[in-house]
Amino acid sequence: METQKQEQWQGKPIVFYDGTCGFCQGSVQVVLKYNKRRSLYFAALQSGVLEALVPKGQIPVPLPDALLFYESGKLYTASEAALRIARHLNFPLSILSVLRIIPLSFRDFVYRLVARNRYRIAGRTESCMLPSPEQRAQFVA
Question: Can you tell me which residues the record assigns to a coiled coil (predicted)?
Answer without folding.
Answer: none
